[in-house]
Write a structure and sequence with these properties.
Elements: H1 2-29, H2 50-62, E1 86-89, E2 92-97, E3 104-106, E4 119-121, E5 126-129, E6 143-145, E7 150-153, E8 167-169, E9 174-177, E10 191-193, E11 198-201, E12 215-217, E13 222-225, E14 239-241, E15 246-250, E16 263-265, E17 270-273, E18 287-289, E19 294-298, E20 311-313, E21 318-321, E22 335-337, E23 342-345, E24 359-361, E25 366-369, E26 383-385, E27 390-393, E28 407-409, E29 414-417, E30 431-433, E31 438-441, E32 455-457, E33 462-466, E34 479-481, E35 486-488, E36 503-505, E37 512-513, E38 527-529, E39 534-537, E40 551-553, E41 558-561, E42 575-577, E43 582-585, E44 599-601, E45 606-609, E46 623-625, E47 630-631, E48 647-649, E49 656-658, E50 670-672, E51 677-679, H3 684-691, E52 695-697, H4 700-703
Parallel strand pairs: 2-4, 3-5, 4-6, 5-7, 6-8, 7-9, 8-10, 9-11, 10-12, 11-13, 12-14, 13-15, 14-16, 15-17, 16-18, 17-19, 18-20, 19-21, 20-22, 21-23, 22-24, 23-25, 24-26, 25-27, 26-28, 27-29, 28-30, 29-31, 30-32, 31-33, 32-34, 33-35, 34-36, 36-38, 37-39, 38-40, 39-41, 40-42, 41-43, 42-44, ...
Antiparallel strand pairs: 1-2
């Protein structure tokens, strides 16, 4: 009995041992090929061949199938042709479409077993790793779409072995290395999108053999070298996008042979030389973007023949010479971008005939002469930017006839004369920028009639007279720049009605009178600057109600009276400059609540009393200017808490006592306390800290002390 028990035990053990080793033996035999999970048996599938079934199962297993967004039927039925995204015909998988489906992981090489696959669409997932070379065996494939994944590594040469391929979309990945020259063998290819990768090297000239290619998009990579002239052979091409690479050399004149081209974008490269006159032969062209290169030479007159052109962008180049009069023949042109070049001469009056033009951008050139009144013929114009040129003469009053004009930017020219009151009749104008000219006369009260104006900039002219109270009617106004003129009178109280005003600059004028208390009603005001005027009277306490203020600069005026404690309510304030006035009284301790303040300038006033210890609560303070007042008493030790402080200016006050040891916590760049009665404590560490300050102007007593005190 005992012998029988032992025999049965050994037999059972042997069976278990053999069973446990069987999977390991099978795995070894198929090492290197992913295994079909034991949860699904392709042997029970009759719709498609077993290798195709296994390829689908491996894809599901390796790309986290259970967490796909949609996985209806997958591994749940024996009918894979009904699984979500799978299409079959004649007993084979013909299409696999799982875009936007949260696939994550590598692309399995087993996909190469889908021998009759016509289309593979796995766009916008989280696929990673390389593109399997086995995909090159799918010789029936019409489209391959892998856009918007995280694929890495080089493009396999085998992709050039797909003789029937019409669409290859591999953009928005992290592919690197060169574009395979073998892609030139794809004789049926119509769309090639490789944009948004890290591809390097030159554009293969072999791509010029793709006789049926309609779209070529290689943008946003790191391609170098010249644009192959062979691309001019792509007679069916409608879109050519090579933007944002590092391409160099001249524009091939052969590109002018692309008679069906609708869109060409070669912007943001390092292309040089002139624009070929042959580009005027691109009769189907609707959009041409050559911006941000190093192109030079004159604008070709031949480009006036581009009868279908809607957008022309040549900004940020080195183009020179005159503006072609022939551009007036561009009947379909809607947007013209020529800014940041070296174009000279005048604006052709005939350009007023471009009936569909919506945007004209000619800023930062060397244009001269006057602005043609004929531009009032641009009935659809929405934006006119002629800034930073050498234009002269008056602003044409006829510009007020532009019914759809929203932005008029003419700053930094040599325009003269008066502001045309009629501009206020431009019904849709939102931005009017005329700064940096030689405009004179007064600001027309009619400017208060702008219905939609949000931006008004008149800085740096020779305007005089009062600021019209009618500007307070501009309910939509967000920015008002009137600095550097010769304006007189006061700030209108009506400005308190500008509920949307964010920026208000009236620096460097001759304004007088008091600051209206109504300005405290401007709930959205962020920047208020009225420096270097002749404003007088007190700072209105109501400014403390403008709680969005970040910058309040009123220095170099004749303001008097105390600093309102209510300014301590401006908890977003980073700059408070009140120096160079006649302010009196004490420094309000409430200012210590301004924890975001970085610059406090109260110097050159008539302030009295002591420095409030509460200023130690200004934790972001970098510059503290209290010079030339009548402050007395010691420097509060709490200033040593201001760890971001870079400069302290206390000179010209009758301050007394020894400087607090806590100042050694600071990393000062500047410390000026000459012409005070402050003394240095008898502490070696303090004196060593003091002499280490780069810009130091100490009190006279300190100059007589030894450089290092004995411990």
């Amino acid at each position: 009995m005992k012998r029988l028990f032992v025999t049965c035990f050994l037999l059972s053990f042997l069976i278990l041992l053999i069973a446990s080793r069987t999977p390991a033996t099978t795995a070894f035999a198929d090492e290197g090929r992913p295994q079909t999970p034991a949860t699904f048996d392709c042997g029970n599938v009759t719709q498609i061949p077993r290798p195709e079934c296994e390829a689908l199962v491996i894809l599901y297993d390796q790309t986290d199938g259970p967490n796909w967004r949609y996985h209806n039927g997958w591994l749940a039925t024996n009918t894979p042709c009904q699984w979500r995204g799978v299409t079959c015909a004649s007993g084979h998988v013909t299409y696999l479409s799982l875009y936007y489906n949260q696939l994550e992981g590598p692309l399995p090489s087993a996909l190469g077993d889908l021998s009759q696959l016509l289309g593979l669409d796995l766009r916008f997932n989280a696929l990673s790793g390389p593109i399997p070379p086995e995909l090159g065996a799918l010789d029936q494939m019409r489209f391959l779409k892998l856009t918007g994944n995280q694929l890495t590594g080089p493009m396999p040469d085998s992709l050039g072995q797909l003789p029937l391929l019409e669409d290859m979309w591999l953009g928005g990945n992290q592919l690197e290395g060169p574009i395979p020259a073998s892609l030139g063998n794809l004789s049926h290819l119509q769309r090639l999108w490789l944009s948004g990768n890290q591809l390097t090297g030159p554009i293969p000239s072999e791509l010029g053999s793709l006789a049926q290619l309609q779209e070529l998009n290689l943008a946003n990579s790191q391609l170098t070298g010249p644009i192959p002239a062979a691309l001019g052979n792509l007679s069916e091409l409608k879109e050519l996008n090579l933007a944002r690479n590092q391409l160099s050399g001249p524009l091939p004149a052969a590109l002018g042979q692309l008679g069906k081209l609708v869109e060409m974008d070669l912007s943001e490269n390092q292309l040089t030389g002139p624009i070929p006159a042959s580009f005027g032969d691109l009769q189907a062209l609707e959009s041409l973007d050559l911006a941000k290169n190093q192109l030079n030479g004159a604008l070709p007159e031949s480009m006036g023949r581009l009868a279908r052109l809607e957008k022309l962008d040549l900004e940020h180049n080195q183009l020179e010479g005159p503006l072609p009069a022939s551009f007036s023949d561009l009947d379909q042109l809607e947007y013209l971008y020529l800014s940041h070049n070296q174009i000279t001469g005048s604006i052709p009056a005939s350009w007023g005939g471009m009936a569909k033009l919506k945007g004209m951008y000619l800023s930062s050139n060397q244009l001269s002469g006057s602005i043609p009144p004929e531009l009032d013929g641009l009935d659809k114009l929405e934006s006119l930017n002629l800034s930073d040129n050498q234009l002269s003469g008056a602003i044409p009053a006829r510009l007020a006839n532009l019914p759809k004009l929203e932005q008029l930017a003419l700053p930094d020219n040599q325009l003269s004369g008066a502001l045309p009151p009629g501009l206020a009749n431009t019904p849709k104008l939102k931005g009017l920028t005329l700064s940096g000219n030689q405009l004179s006369g007064t600001i027309p009260p009619e400017f208060g009639n702008f219905a939609q104006l949000t931006h008004l900039a008149l800085t740096g002219n020779q305007l005089e007279g009062n600021i019209p109270a009618a500007l307070g009617n501009l309910k939509s106004l967000q920015t008002l720049y009137l600095s550097e003129n010769q304006l007189t009178g006061g700030i209108p109280a009506t400005f308190g009605q500008l509920d949307n005003l964010v920026f208000f600059y009236v620096n460097d004028n001759q304004l007088d009178g008091s600051i209206p208390p109504e300005m405290g009603d401007m709930e959205r005001l962020v920047f208020f600057q009225a420096m270097r005027n002749q404003l007088s009277g007190p700072i209105p306490p109501e400014l403390g109600d403008a709680t969005q203020l970040v910058s309040l600069m009123l220095m170099d005026n004749h303001l008097s009276g105390p600093i309102p404690p209510q300014l301590g309510q401006l908890n977003r304030l980073t700059t408070l400059w009140l120096y160079g006035n006649q302010l009196s009284g004490t420094i309000p301790p409430e200012l210590g609540s301004l924890t975001k303040l970085q610059n406090l300038g109260l110097g050159d006033n008539q302030l009295t009393g002591s420095i409030p210890p509460e200023l130690g609560g200004m934790t972001d303070l970098e510059w503290l200017s209290l010079y030339k007042n009548q402050l007395t008493g010691p420097v509060p030790p709490e200033l040593g808490n201001l760890s971001k402080l870079r400069g302290i200016f206390l000179f010209g006050n009758p301050l007394s006592g020894c400087l607090p040891l806590s100042l050694t916590n600071l990393h000062l760049e500047r410390f000026f306390f000459e012409d005070t009665d402050l003394c240095v404590p008898a502490d070696a560490d303090f004196l060593n800290w003091l002499v280490g300050i780069q810009h130091l102007r100490p009190a006279d007593l300190v100059l007589r002390l030894p450089l290092v005190l004995a411990p």
